[in-house]
Amino acid sequence: MKKEIKHIGVMGAGLVGALLSIYLRKRGYKVSLYEKRDDMRKSSSDSGRSINLALSKRGIKALEDIGVIEEVKKIMLPMEGRMMHSKDGELTFQPYGKEGQFINSVSRGNLNKILLEKAEASGVEIKFEHTCKSVDLEGTSVTFKTPETEKTMQFDLLFGSDGAYSQMRQAMLKTDRFNYEQYYIPHGYKELSIPPTEDGDFAIAPNALHIWPRGQYMLIALPNLDKSFTCTLFFPFEGQPSFESLQTPQQVLQFFKNTFPDSLPHLKNIQDEYFQNPTSSLVTVKCEPWVKNNCVLIGDAAHAIVPFYGQGMNAGFEDCYELNLLLDKHSDDWENTLAEYQEVRKKDGDAIADLALHNFVEMRDLVADDKFLVQKKIEAKLHEKFPDKWIPLYSMVTFSDLRYSEAFEIGKKQQVIMDEVMQKPDILENWENIDLEKIVDKL
Length: 443
Ligand code: FAD
Description:
Layout: E1 7-11, H1 15-26, E2 30-34, E3 52-55, H2 57-65, H3 69-73, E4 77-79, E5 81-85, E6 91-95, E7 103-107, H4 108-121, E8 125-127, E9 131-136, E10 141-145, E11 150-154, E12 157-160, H5 167-173, E13 179-194, E14 208-213, E15 218-223, E16 229-236, H6 249-259, H7 270-276, E17 280-288, E18 291-292, E19 295-297, H8 312-329, H9 334-364, H10 370-385, H11 393-398, H12 404-422, H13 427-430, H14 436-441
Parallel strand pairs: 1-2, 1-12, 2-8, 5-14, 12-19
Antiparallel strand pairs: 3-7, 4-7, 5-6, 9-10, 10-11, 13-16, 13-17, 14-15, 15-16, 18-19
Helix pairs in contact: 1-4, 1-8, 2-8, 8-9, 9-12
Bound molecules: flavin-adenine dinucleotide.
Residues 11-17, 34-37, 53-54, 131-132, 161-163, 167, 189, 232, 299-301, 307, 310-314, 316 line the site of flavin-adenine dinucleotide.
């Protein structure tokens, strides 16, 4: 590790790269941020589509820390629970946590714009249309392709925040003793939309994350500021039914009519959107080490996860927050900081990756299961009675900043206890009389 760090390059001006560059600039480093796309604040390429994400405690904490939360609050829409849509149109609302606890739907584009504005105002140099073609891990240099030319730039330290298909990680992959694991789930996703009603209102309840759970697949919807919803269909690539099996507009309509009947009247442009919008895949990436010489992975580049816990961005923001804390702790000694960053965050990255995979089963399947719902109710009561002793796993991940790896371990213990409780033959009828103290004592 080169000792004196003055100029830091950050590759990828997505959510994590933009936030990271603000943190680094605030510490007094010269920061250059490079992005392959053009400046989203000037271009209209994303304006036709509104892709939204769930922002929760860990992400909010970092946004507060760098002083942009007031701006972000203006684009946050609270979602207090899951609104389940059964096949016959019955609605069931399941709160996410205690009263006053909610997650927030935010537009990815608008959040990214806020962060870019803040980065620029803090003195970060931002270069758009700079595609990283290769990284020299020994020389801490990057070769960029721009519309005009190809050039190589050298830095004292380099961060790869260039997402799930990171070029920096690609370079690390070629080095000795770099461990790498990737896993594509058999499902892909496609975005659809529910526009506002004719009188300009939300077509379905705005304060919830809507889920149409259907066993092997599901449809979800998150609200937008313009009173539309962005829906995502998580669906197998192959098999019956699947993206492969729905080939014609009639087949799509028939499928939605049979499977998500109450959504269909609201999905006004489904025929066009289904065929025009891309079908994208969902990958989990685990790798190690995240630091090679003076090159460091962060965000999705270090730990791409499936979106079912709504934590990918939140985890990436937490990477930046924790890195900044470690720089404080080690008085900007990068060698010690990065050693600890990797040690701590790798465990947490792995934990949230596994939790996210598991939550897909919960969302698409279990949320419609009576036994599961009773279990959630018992856990909510446990939390109410013993708020410090029993915190449901979802709350530990979403509403606390307990390390993901610790939450994961506690969650496993809780599950063993709850499996035993749920085996009682009359549990569905008599769950309200259960001895909560006895359950908590088992922890
Ligand atoms: P990215 O957002 O991928 O940004 C990487 C940036 O690098 C991009 O701007 C890209 O253009 C740029 N780039 C890439 N390659 C190069 C290159 N070679 N040269 C230069 N620039 C490059 N997370 C949540 O917390 N909550 C959610 O509700 C949620 N929902 C999701 C739903 C879906 C369908 C998906 C797919 C993800 C979801 N996520 C969610 C995860 C979240 O989107 C990611 O974790 C987050 O975007 C990671 O940020 P990042 O900056 O690390 O990567």
